[in-house]
Amino acid sequence: MRIEETIARMRPIMSSWRFTPSGFSKESPSAELLLCLPREYLALLQHLGPGEGFIGTEYLRLYPLEDLAAANVAYSITEYLPQHYLFGSDGCGNALLFNLALSPTSVVKTPFIPLNLEFGTLVAADFAAFLDTLASVPPDFAGTLPLSPNPETLGLEVHEPHPVVLGGDPSDLKNKVLLRPPVHAQACVFFNRMVRSIGEQSPAN
Protein backbone atom coordinates (compact mmCIF):
# COMPACT_ATOMS: atom_id res chain seq x y z
CA MET A 1 0.00 0.00 0.00
CA ARG A 2 1.33 3.44 -0.96
CA ILE A 3 1.98 5.91 1.85
CA GLU A 4 -0.69 8.24 0.45
CA GLU A 5 -3.29 5.49 0.84
CA THR A 6 -2.14 4.76 4.38
CA ILE A 7 -2.36 8.44 5.35
CA ALA A 8 -5.83 8.64 3.76
CA ARG A 9 -6.91 5.75 6.01
CA MET A 10 -5.49 7.52 9.06
CA ARG A 11 -6.88 11.01 8.40
CA PRO A 12 -10.44 10.41 9.69
CA ILE A 13 -9.12 9.11 13.03
CA MET A 14 -6.17 11.46 13.30
CA SER A 15 -6.00 14.53 15.49
CA SER A 16 -4.30 17.73 14.37
CA TRP A 17 -0.61 17.10 13.66
CA ARG A 18 1.40 19.55 15.77
CA PHE A 19 5.08 20.40 15.84
CA THR A 20 7.36 22.28 18.21
CA PRO A 21 11.18 22.28 18.15
CA SER A 22 12.64 19.57 20.39
CA GLY A 23 15.68 21.50 21.54
CA PHE A 24 18.15 18.92 20.24
CA SER A 25 20.95 20.15 18.04
CA LYS A 26 20.45 19.82 14.30
CA GLU A 27 22.54 17.58 12.08
CA SER A 28 21.76 16.44 8.57
CA PRO A 29 21.33 12.66 8.46
CA SER A 30 24.12 10.78 6.74
CA ALA A 31 23.56 8.92 3.49
CA GLU A 32 24.42 5.71 5.35
CA LEU A 33 21.70 6.32 7.93
CA LEU A 34 19.11 7.16 5.29
CA LEU A 35 19.79 3.83 3.62
CA CYS A 36 19.12 2.04 6.93
CA LEU A 37 15.83 3.77 7.72
CA PRO A 38 12.58 2.27 6.35
CA ARG A 39 11.31 3.83 3.14
CA GLU A 40 7.79 4.05 4.56
CA TYR A 41 9.09 6.02 7.53
CA LEU A 42 10.92 8.51 5.31
CA ALA A 43 7.85 8.82 3.10
CA LEU A 44 5.62 9.50 6.12
CA LEU A 45 7.96 12.24 7.31
CA GLN A 46 7.95 13.72 3.84
CA HIS A 47 4.15 13.82 3.71
CA LEU A 48 3.28 14.68 7.32
CA GLY A 49 6.48 16.25 8.55
CA PRO A 50 7.81 15.74 12.07
CA GLY A 51 5.27 16.31 14.81
CA GLU A 52 2.85 14.59 17.12
CA GLY A 53 -0.76 13.72 17.65
CA PHE A 54 -3.25 10.94 18.08
CA ILE A 55 -3.71 8.37 15.33
CA GLY A 56 -6.70 6.33 16.39
CA THR A 57 -6.20 5.52 20.06
CA GLU A 58 -2.39 5.77 19.97
CA TYR A 59 -0.23 8.84 20.41
CA LEU A 60 2.73 9.25 18.08
CA ARG A 61 5.62 11.70 18.30
CA LEU A 62 8.07 11.71 15.37
CA TYR A 63 11.34 13.59 15.83
CA PRO A 64 12.71 15.56 12.86
CA LEU A 65 15.33 13.72 10.85
CA GLU A 66 17.82 16.45 11.73
CA ASP A 67 17.29 15.75 15.46
CA LEU A 68 17.83 11.99 15.35
CA ALA A 69 21.62 11.92 15.71
CA ALA A 70 21.60 14.26 18.72
CA ALA A 71 18.61 12.50 20.30
CA ASN A 72 20.23 9.09 20.06
CA VAL A 73 23.42 10.43 21.62
CA ALA A 74 21.54 12.29 24.35
CA TYR A 75 19.62 9.18 25.41
CA SER A 76 22.74 6.98 25.09
CA ILE A 77 20.81 4.57 22.88
CA THR A 78 23.83 2.65 21.59
CA GLU A 79 25.06 2.14 25.17
CA TYR A 80 21.88 0.34 26.20
CA LEU A 81 20.35 -0.87 22.94
CA PRO A 82 23.05 -1.55 20.35
CA GLN A 83 21.80 -1.69 16.75
CA HIS A 84 18.63 0.19 17.71
CA TYR A 85 17.78 3.73 16.64
CA LEU A 86 15.40 6.10 18.40
CA PHE A 87 12.95 7.87 16.08
CA GLY A 88 10.17 9.02 18.39
CA SER A 89 7.96 8.21 21.34
CA ASP A 90 4.38 7.52 22.36
CA GLY A 91 4.32 10.66 24.50
CA CYS A 92 3.68 8.54 27.59
CA GLY A 93 7.19 7.61 28.69
CA ASN A 94 7.99 5.02 26.04
CA ALA A 95 10.61 5.23 23.31
CA LEU A 96 9.97 4.08 19.76
CA LEU A 97 12.99 2.55 18.06
CA PHE A 98 14.02 0.78 14.89
CA ASN A 99 15.87 -2.50 15.22
CA LEU A 100 18.46 -1.94 12.53
CA ALA A 101 19.85 -5.46 12.95
CA LEU A 102 16.79 -6.92 11.22
CA SER A 103 15.63 -6.78 7.63
CA PRO A 104 12.98 -5.56 7.31
CA THR A 105 13.57 -3.11 10.13
CA SER A 106 11.19 -3.81 13.00
CA VAL A 107 9.62 -1.28 15.37
CA VAL A 108 10.22 -1.71 19.10
CA LYS A 109 8.69 0.12 22.05
CA THR A 110 10.42 0.22 25.42
CA PRO A 111 10.24 2.49 28.46
CA PHE A 112 12.79 5.28 28.46
CA ILE A 113 13.60 3.99 31.98
CA PRO A 114 14.90 1.36 31.82
CA LEU A 115 16.13 1.20 28.25
CA ASN A 116 16.02 -2.57 28.29
CA LEU A 117 14.37 -4.90 25.80
CA GLU A 118 13.25 -7.13 28.68
CA PHE A 119 10.74 -4.38 29.42
CA GLY A 120 9.98 -3.67 25.78
CA THR A 121 7.66 -5.05 23.15
CA LEU A 122 7.88 -5.73 19.43
CA VAL A 123 5.25 -3.37 18.03
CA ALA A 124 5.47 -4.39 14.38
CA ALA A 125 7.66 -6.42 12.06
CA ASP A 126 8.19 -3.39 9.82
CA PHE A 127 7.15 0.26 9.61
CA ALA A 128 4.32 -0.39 7.16
CA ALA A 129 2.80 -2.83 9.66
CA PHE A 130 3.34 -0.23 12.40
CA LEU A 131 1.29 2.31 10.45
CA ASP A 132 -1.37 -0.30 9.79
CA THR A 133 -1.58 -0.93 13.53
CA LEU A 134 -2.06 2.79 14.18
CA ALA A 135 -4.77 2.99 11.53
CA SER A 136 -6.69 0.06 13.03
CA VAL A 137 -9.04 1.05 15.87
CA PRO A 138 -9.47 -1.60 18.60
CA PRO A 139 -12.89 -3.24 18.20
CA ASP A 140 -13.76 -2.61 21.85
CA PHE A 141 -13.09 1.13 21.64
CA ALA A 142 -16.36 2.97 22.38
CA GLY A 143 -15.17 6.58 22.30
CA THR A 144 -15.25 9.25 19.61
CA LEU A 145 -12.42 9.75 17.16
CA PRO A 146 -10.26 11.62 16.57
CA LEU A 147 -9.07 12.06 20.15
CA SER A 148 -8.04 15.54 21.25
CA PRO A 149 -4.43 16.04 22.41
CA ASN A 150 -3.66 18.05 25.51
CA PRO A 151 -2.06 21.31 24.26
CA GLU A 152 -0.04 21.58 27.48
CA THR A 153 1.95 18.45 26.57
CA LEU A 154 3.07 19.66 23.15
CA GLY A 155 6.75 18.87 22.64
CA LEU A 156 7.19 17.48 26.16
CA GLU A 157 8.05 14.00 27.40
CA VAL A 158 6.49 12.42 30.49
CA HIS A 159 9.01 11.67 33.23
CA GLU A 160 8.50 9.85 36.54
CA PRO A 161 10.88 11.31 39.19
CA HIS A 162 10.52 7.99 41.03
CA PRO A 163 10.78 5.49 38.14
CA VAL A 164 8.46 2.51 38.22
CA VAL A 165 11.39 0.11 37.86
CA LEU A 166 12.74 1.54 41.13
CA GLY A 167 9.43 1.21 42.95
CA GLY A 168 7.59 4.31 41.79
CA ASP A 169 3.80 4.33 41.48
CA PRO A 170 2.79 4.54 37.79
CA SER A 171 -0.72 5.75 38.71
CA ASP A 172 0.41 8.57 41.01
CA LEU A 173 -0.06 11.87 39.17
CA LYS A 174 2.37 13.51 41.59
CA ASN A 175 5.01 11.16 40.17
CA LYS A 176 4.71 12.62 36.68
CA VAL A 177 6.31 15.75 35.30
CA LEU A 178 6.66 17.10 31.77
CA LEU A 179 10.17 17.82 30.49
CA ARG A 180 11.67 19.19 27.31
CA PRO A 181 13.36 16.33 25.42
CA PRO A 182 17.00 17.36 26.14
CA VAL A 183 16.26 17.63 29.88
CA HIS A 184 14.28 14.40 29.74
CA ALA A 185 17.26 12.69 28.12
CA GLN A 186 19.54 13.82 30.96
CA ALA A 187 17.11 12.44 33.55
CA CYS A 188 16.82 9.14 31.67
CA VAL A 189 20.59 8.70 31.41
CA PHE A 190 20.95 9.37 35.15
CA PHE A 191 18.33 6.79 36.13
CA ASN A 192 19.35 4.23 33.52
CA ARG A 193 22.87 4.25 34.91
CA MET A 194 21.44 3.88 38.40
CA VAL A 195 19.30 0.91 37.32
CA ARG A 196 22.28 -0.74 35.65
CA SER A 197 24.47 -0.15 38.70
CA ILE A 198 21.87 -1.71 41.00
CA GLY A 199 21.57 -4.68 38.66
CA GLU A 200 25.34 -5.21 38.62
CA GLN A 201 25.42 -5.18 42.42
CA SER A 202 22.53 -7.63 42.87
CA PRO A 203 23.39 -11.12 44.23
CA ALA A 204 22.27 -12.76 40.98
CA ASN A 205 25.18 -11.06 39.25
Short characterization:
By secondary structure, this protein is α+β, with helices and mostly antiparallel strands. It is 32% helix and 19% strand. It contains 7 helices and 8 strands.
Question: What keywords describe this structure?
Answer:
alpha+beta, SMI1/KNR4-like, single chain, two-stranded antiparallel ribbon, 7 helices, 205 residues, globular, six-stranded antiparallel beta sheet
CATH topology: SMI1/KNR4-like
- For the biggest β-sheet, the strand order reads 1-2-3-4-5-6
Tally of individual domains: 1
CATH architecture identity = 3-Layer(aba) Sandwich
Strand runs, count? 8
Q: Give Rg in angstroms.
A: 17 Å
Question: CATH class, anyone?
Answer: Alpha Beta
Which class of secondary structure composition applies to the elements? alpha+beta
In CATH, the homologous superfamily goes by the name SMI1/KNR4-like
Largest sheet: 6 strands, antiparallel
- The CA-CA distance between the termini, in Å, is 48 Å
Mean pLDDT: 95
State the low-pLDDT regions, or none. none
Task: Write the H/E string, N to C.
Answer: HHHEEHHEEEEHEEH
Number of helices: 7
Helix content: 25-40%
